[in-house]
Design a protein that fits this description.
By secondary structure, the chain is of the alpha/beta class. The chain contains 18 helices and eight strands.
């Protein structure tokens, strides 16, 4: 094992290729923006919002080719065998107040190790919210990230700057496999310069200002909704508005015209969502009564559609009878391959289903699914090969083997398509009974 956690490892580099493929194939859309904002000089701490348990480090690991060191909560480092595995994976512990005052004292050692990582010019990835939460919001940032930055500044002998790189991670869905993820790198914060500019102020005041700046920068990189009593209603409002193609295209054109550039893929979706959130917040500030009345109606529709198995997408983008028929026929065409995929990928989805039943925190759903799927990915290949070539002529066996390779992805994608089709049909027949809502 390497002496320092940040040292290069040939085995780690080899396995990372497989992990990167596993991560990117877990999402229907995987998009990275703002790579040019990553500084080429000095030491760099990566700071991201934390919404999806261990999938957050996985998607950041695959965002760039460069090696990185991550932190995780200290309570998972209790067993020596686990420590060895996590150290190999370049994950080190960090202690939180909830771990107890005595435990937090060990953070001095963690800060020393983190400083060593930074001085070797390896990105140190930390989630300053200190815990995960599947919401389009931010928790109060911990001060640990700034203590690490200060420690690195004190020990840089060549005067090179220390940066904090804000990163926004935006998921299409926190719990479903084969959703989407946008990783967005913002402009780096030069902490060395920041401390020089505020050198005349007490350290606690400077620390507070740094936290405010980083919070603001992170909120600009995600769809940010204040975490208050209107959170659910505002997010529902966004889905009902922004999932409408006519509205989305109109707003996106307006945003692109204003910014003078094209916003492709998930970047455009996020821009429209952020715009719609701001509209709701503006209404809340300018006319609280109107906002309260709107949110009440939106929430009533949200509860109704959940009870009736209707998605917000079905309401925002209602299908005509002809389009519903076309979607149904397409589902019928894909049904034979779906049945084949269900059988072929049973070696994966059955264990995944059993594992998911043991998960108590919904935020760990995708993490558990990803880990189980990755562990079984290579096992499936020899099982398919032996079964097909023993039972079938080689031509048919080869075709079956090739068709099995994307079987799990198609299984989930078809399942998602069919769920949306059922939702569209329910909305078609039940919309007259839904609470009325006009924007």
């Amino acid at each position: 094992m390497s002496k320092n956690i940040q040292d290069k490892s040939k085995l780690y580099s080899f396995l990372k290729i497989f992990v990167d493929w596993s991560v990117k194939s877990s999402y229907r859309k995987y998009q990275v923006e703002g790579i040019e904002n990553i500084p080429n000089d000095g030491c760099c701490i990566w700071a991201a919002n934390h919404t999806n348990a261990l999938m957050d480090p996985m998607v950041l690991l695959s965002a760039t080719k460069q090696p990185k060191v991550f932190v995780a909560r200290a309570d998972i480092f209790k067993k020596q065998s686990v420590v060895k595995i996590l150290t190999f994976l370049k994950v080190m512990p960090i202690y939180r107040i909830r771990d107890g005052i005595d435990a937090v004292k060990h953070n001095n050692e963690s800060i020393e190790r983190a400083t060593g990582v930074l001085l070797d010019h390896v990105p140190f990835v930390i989630y300053p919210e200190a815990t995960h939460r599947p919401k389009h919001s931010l928790l109060k940032l911990s001060k640990g990230i700034f203590h690490i930055a200060e420690s690195a500044i004190e020990k840089t002998k060549d005067g090179s700057p220390v940066y904090i790189q804000p990163i926004g991670i935006e998921y299409g869905d926190y719990f479903r496999f084969r959703s989407s993820v946008l990783i967005k790198f913002g402009k780096p914060l030069n902490i060395t310069e920041f401390l020089k500019e505020h050198s005349d102020q007490p350290q606690p005041v400077t620390m507070l200002k740094m936290r405010e700046v980083l919070t603001e920068k992170l909120s600009e990189l995600i769809v940010y909704i204040p975490d208050d009593e209107d959170y659910d209603a505002i997010w529902e409002y966004v889905k009902l508005k922004a999932d409408n193609p006519e509205y989305r295209n109109k707003v996106l054109a307006e945003i692109e015209s204003k910014e003078g550039k094209k916003l492709n893929g998930l970047l455009g979706i996020q821009a429209v969502d952020r715009y719609t959130v701001q509209k709701a917040l503006d209404l809340k500030e300018s006319d609280p009564d109107a906002a309260k009345n709107l949110f009440k109606k939106v929430d009533a529709l949200r509860l109704w559609r959940i009870q009736n198995g209707v998605s917000a997408r079905s309401i925002a983008n209602e299908c005509s009878g002809l389009k519903l028929f076309a979607k149904f026929m397409l589902a019928l065409i894909g049904l034979p391959y779906y049945c084949f995929c269900a059988i072929a990928s049973s070696i994966k989805w059955i264990p995944i289903t059993l594992v998911l039943r043991t998960v108590k925190d919904d935020a760990f759903y995708n993490t558990a699914r990803f880990g189980t799927r990755m562990a079984l990915a290579l096992l499936a290949l020899p099982v398919w090969a032996v079964a097909y070539y023993l039972l079938l002529p080689w031509q048919i066996a080869t075709a079956a083997f090739l068709l099995s390779l994307p079987s799990l992805k198609f299984l989930y994608d078809y399942g998602c398509y069919f769920r949306r089709l059922c939702s569209d049909i329910r909305w078609k027949f039940k919309k007259k009974r839904a609470p009325k809502l006009e924007f």
